[in-house]
Design brief:
The protein is α+β, with helices and mostly antiparallel strands and 176 residues long. Helix content is 27%, strand content 20%.
Length: 176
C-alpha cells in the first residue's frame, strides 16, 4: 500500500513538472533581449533557462546570442543533444530577432549582456572560439560535454567576456 502511494506521488510530481504547452510556449520571446531593430550597436548576450522536464529542478540550458553592429538579427549558438541522435552536430547555429525565446516552456534569464564597442571587439573572438569548439559533434548529459560545456568553453577562451555560469549549469566544469 505504501509503495503504491509513493509511486502515485512520484508519477504525479513528474507529470506536474512537464509543461504540456511547451511547443507553443517555447517559441515565445521573453522580452529581455536588446531589440535589434532599435539598437544598431553590437550585442553579445548569454541566456539560461530551466532544462526540459524534471531536469529543470536541477539544471539549466544555456546559449549564446551575438548581434554584430547594424545586424537586423542575432546569431544564436547552442548545443542540443537530440541533434547527435539524429546524426547532426550537437552545436547548432540559427538567426533570429528574438534570441530570448522560452526553452521548452521555461522563461530564460539573461546571464550576460555586452554592448557597443566592447561587443564589437569581442564578437570576432567569439566566432573564432566557436569554430574551434572541440566537442561540436558530441553530447553527454553528465558530466558533459553538453549545452553548458559550450558557453563555459567560449568564456574560458575569452576571459574579457566575463562570463560566469550559474551553479545549476551542470556540465560547465567539463570544459575546465
Amino acid at each position: 500500500m505504501k509503495k503504491s502511494i509513493l509511486l502515485l506521488l512520484l508519477v504525479s510530481l513528474l507529470a506536474a513538472c512537464s509543461n504540456s504547452n511547451w511547443r507553443t510556449a517555447s517559441r515565445k520571446p521573453a522580452g529581455i533581449a536588446v531589440d535589434p531593430t532599435k539598437y544598431k550597436e553590437a550585442v553579445i548576450e548569454v541566456y539560461a533557462a530551466d532544462a526540459f522536464s524534471w531536469r529543470g529542478w536541477f539544471a539549466v540550458h544555456t546559449w549564446i546570442a551575438v548581434k554584430p553592429q547594424n545586424a537586423a538579427e542575432y546569431t544564436v549558438f547552442e548545443v542540443v543533444g537530440w541533434r547527435v541522435k539524429s546524426g547532426l552536430p550537437a552545436l547548432r547555429e540559427y538567426k533570429t530577432a528574438t534570441p530570448d525565446r522560452y526553452w521548452y516552456g521555461a522563461k530564460p534569464e539573461k546571464l550576460l549582456s555586452v554592448q557597443g564597442d566592447k561587443a564589437n571587439r569581442l564578437i570576432p573572438q567569439i566566432f573564432d572560439a566557436i569554430a574551434r569548439y572541440p566537442w561540436a559533434n558530441e553530447y553527454t548529459l553528465f558530466p558533459g560535454p553538453n549545452s553548458n560545456t559550450f558557453p563555459q568553453w567560449v568564456g574560458l577562451q575569452i576571459p574579457e567576456l566575463g562570463l560566469e555560469l550559474p551553479f545549476r549549469a551542470l556540465g560547465s566544469r567539463y570544459a575546465n
